[in-house]
Amino acid sequence: IMLSQDYTEFEIKRLINAYVISAVIIAVLLFVQQYDYYGSGNERHTIKILTNDVFDPNFLAAFLVAPGIIAFSKMVYRFSLRNMIAFLAIIAGILYTSSRGAFLSAIMGIGIVILGFFKGNKNRKHMIIVAFVLLLGCFLVVEFIPNNSLIRVINFKSYYDGSNAKRLLDWKLGMMAFFKRPILGYGLQGEMSIIKKALGMSYISHNTFIAFLLQFGIAGFSIILACVLRLFRNIKRNSVLKGVLLSTMAVSVFISAEVALAFWIPIMFVAVISVYERRSRITNGWL
Asked: How many CB atoms lie under 10 A from the CB of residue 125?
């Protein structure tokens, strides 16, 4: 549907700005509330709005990934203090959640943007400013983030913990359930219901793509994959959109985001912008 919609540059800019602002608001709430999700030592932070349930920090961090990459791209291509503050706030917000999957996915997306920028930009002064801002940002983030959260993300020894061991078990059980009905899947049901029915155990697959396989089988998943590949083909010359799309796919490996805003909103933005850029033949004019 989004690939058939036409938006003006002005409309896209307003949508993108609203998306980035929403991520900054979440980051500010993380700093202000510092809500300890597990109550286990001020390590994983999230937010709580009024009497609603607290947000899962993994999904909260996943939502911040795409706008964080967009904010970084705006800072690189259209440098301003506002863009720099937005980027640093969002990255700090991801680190506050202590979500390793979101952090690694954001770094990957940022790396793709940087490679594209240095490849197509010969303005050395601009490149020096970008490099300085990155170094400054790293320093500020390290000083600002609670030690427990920072250690969980940047100390790679912490990746060999019970959390990831359980995630690997979730993936294994999800694939075991998939192989029991691989062609058409189990239909539109929750993952826990599917795995419970197939294996007699209450688990989730903890992976968006395994969840798609469980629900729609190879037949349905092939359609979803074809749509994503088509979208990637449309944006193959735009490093910013590639960074957003690939980082969204990457973070979706670590959570079951098949019905989450963190998965679908970036895809819709990339689709809308790809249509605009093919029509206008202007790359990144919306930044």
From this structure: 7
Could you tell me which of 13, 11, 23, 112 has the C-alpha nearest to residue 67? 23
| Beta-bridge mates of residue 82 | none
Distance CA 190, CA 206 (A): 12
Q: Which of 258, 273, 262, 222 is nearest to 99 (CA)?
A: 262
The whole-number pLDDT of residue 123 equals 64
The per-residue pLDDT for range 89-100, each reduced to its tens digit, is: 999 899 888 888
pLDDT tens by residue, 196-233: 999 999 888 989 999 999 999 999 999 999 999 999 99
Query: What residues in the chain have per-residue pLDDT under 50?
Result: none
Do 213 and 256 meet the contact criterion of CB atoms below 8 Å apart?
Answer: no
For the residues of 58-97, what is the DSSP string, one character each?
A: HHHHHHHHHHHHHHHHHHHHS--HHHHHHHHHHHHHHHHH
Distance from C-alpha of 20 to C-alpha of 236, rounded to nearest angstrom: 23
Instruction: Enter the tokens of residue 219.
Output: 């037949």
CB atoms within 10 A of CB 194: 24
| Residue 44 near residue 37 (C-beta atoms within 8 A) | yes
